[in-house]
Amino acid sequence: MAAGRQWVNGIIEKGMEIDCIYAIKKKDPPRKGKRAGYFFTIVVSDATGEIRVNYWGKGEEAAVRTTYEALREGSMVRVRGRSDLFGDSVVVQVNQGNGDILEEAKEGTYDLADFIVASKKDPEVMYQELQELLSQINDEHIRRMLDLMFSDPSLVTAFKTSPASVSYHCAWVGGLLEHTLNVARACDFISRLYEELDRDLLLASAVLHDIGKVRCYNVSTTITESVDGRLRGHIMIGAQMVEDTCSRCPDFPETLRTKLVHMVLASHGTNEKGSPTLPSIPEALALTFADEMDAKLERFIRARDNGGREDLFVVDHMLGTKIYLG
């Protein structure tokens, strides 16, 4: 990564002069400010994180809309402005009247390596460990189903390189595999703690619960949702993938197929969190807890590690809590 650039995770206080190139992750349409003219907000990112940028132009609606329409999600933008505090968050304010700039950056003026975040762990090593866990499954029907699912080279490649989310947890290249392995490890431990559980079903579902995410994201300088991911969601896509693969296995038991599909559908635990059905078997409940534990712990740890050296707490709005840094 380039030395000397203004990394997002270094914008930590009010009053910093910002002049750097970032990737546009999200755009919010222009709107009227409470005490000023029209403005719009974009979320920009680099390999260290993301930050909100408010563009005020000169407060005139037409000029603000012209700038808004000239910017594209996934493109690169030069941001020249000043950092500010908005509630508990640091933002960047761009005011054209002060000579600030918000414009699409030209190719050749940035290094893509500064924007692509990848797992710090070797995907081949992680995938091998996952395969070793799956080799312990005794049920021949589940083994054949998993062998068939992962016999597709393009799926395996996507599984190793996909993120686990756009921004919530493991939002980097290889994040899906990293999260899946953590959930499988947790489920392996849970199955040994509660011997009444169907270990084969739990381990298989740990690997399959987020399989739909291989079709949900586009990765370039940013991570964005695919059309399929946005319209159907990874749970419905994954459940269909599991259903289809089971159907391709000769003499696959109907009850086992229903349980595997249920595990995927119920993996988020509640309707409010995106699951169309609630856990109805103990293995599904165990998977839900393992999945949520890994996602929340990863976010807690990342928030703590990204806190300022002088801060006692950092606020995580997605978790809805303050995290102690002492």
Structure description:
The structure is a single chain. The chain has 326 residues and is α+β, with helices and mostly antiparallel strands. The chain folds into two domains: 107 residues, Nucleic acid-binding proteins (OB fold (Dihydrolipoamide Acetyltransferase, E2P), Beta Barrel), CATH 2.40.50.140; 182 residues, Orthogonal Bundle (Hypothetical protein af1432). It is built from ten helices and ten strands. A hairpin with a 5-residue loop joins strand 1 and strand 2. The longest helix is centred in the last third of the chain and has 24 residues. The radius of gyration is 22 Å and the shape is elongated. The mean pLDDT is 92.
Key terms:
326 residues, alpha+beta, OB fold (Dihydrolipoamide Acetyltransferase, E2P), Hypothetical protein af1432, 2 domains, five-stranded mixed β-barrel, two-stranded antiparallel ribbon, 10 helices
